[in-house]
DNA sequence: TATACTGTAATAATATTTCATACAGTTAGC
DNA sequence: GCTAACTGTATGAAATATTATTACAGTATA
């Protein structure tokens, strides 16, 4: 579920990076290395949260609907997979009389929920702009001085 | 992988809770609601990190080897599943010429690694003692005034 | 009206997680 | 020494979650 967050950030970053800030699900899918259906599902969620606009029909696709410097990763995270840091599996058994077994699931839920807030606090400090900056830092490291042909 | 953390905390908390701080993998497995093999694997890791002592043979089992108030959840977390917050799936394709596609995996890795530090920072503030306290709070809420028979 | 899109459902393929079984090695007590 | 009750670990099966594929209805453009 957390890889959906990666995909969402990737798509938003790519839209921010592209000169016209627009792309189809097929183009996004190829760039992300996944399939268009997955992209459409995730972008559909991002649309509901207002990060992108969509246009159906010929010449349609997805268009960035926000300022890269103003959208934090925490907002994207919550939109896509907030509350998913706790594991699916739960420990103990509520039917048991033992204090530990009966309540451990509940207690751990609390810890995971609170820890997630700290997690989000970090994401809060980073925006789509930060992502673009880090991408450009990669470029400087791997191909200092060279110019790339960008094949979207 | 993060549910292993839950199991580890559960086992350590139970050992801390039990009067003699000792239990076999079978007893732990039943209390946690899982199988002894899983418990032994996790406890084996906790042993290597020094949180518990083990004794093989008749009358053997696991024994707490630390002070509940001094062991933070962050230490347990790192012992069991540090570095597992980033998803298995990676976005993009390093072979692509596009800056975004080529480097997104690397950039997201960085974010996940740093976010995990914030996550651990929260766990740092909580110890096995905290877990026991929260368990007792559950008891107060659900069965105020009643005495429980504890069937380990 | 044909074409190129999104939105979404349904299902297949794959990967991960959890469980079950088995057995070698260890220790204690008889 | 022998047996019984443990841990440590390997291996494979079962259950579950994730990702990919296919299909098609709805929409906008030319």
From TrEMBL, chains A, B:
- A Pfam family matched in the record: Rrf2
Q: What GO cellular component entries does it have? A: cytosol
Any GO MF annotation of the entry = DNA-binding transcription factor activity
Superkingdom of source: Bacteria
Under the heading SUPFAM superfamilies, the entry gives: Winged helix' DNA-binding domain (SSF46785)
Q: What name does UniProt use for this protein?
A: Transcriptional regulator
| Source organism (scientific name) | Paenibacillus pinisoli
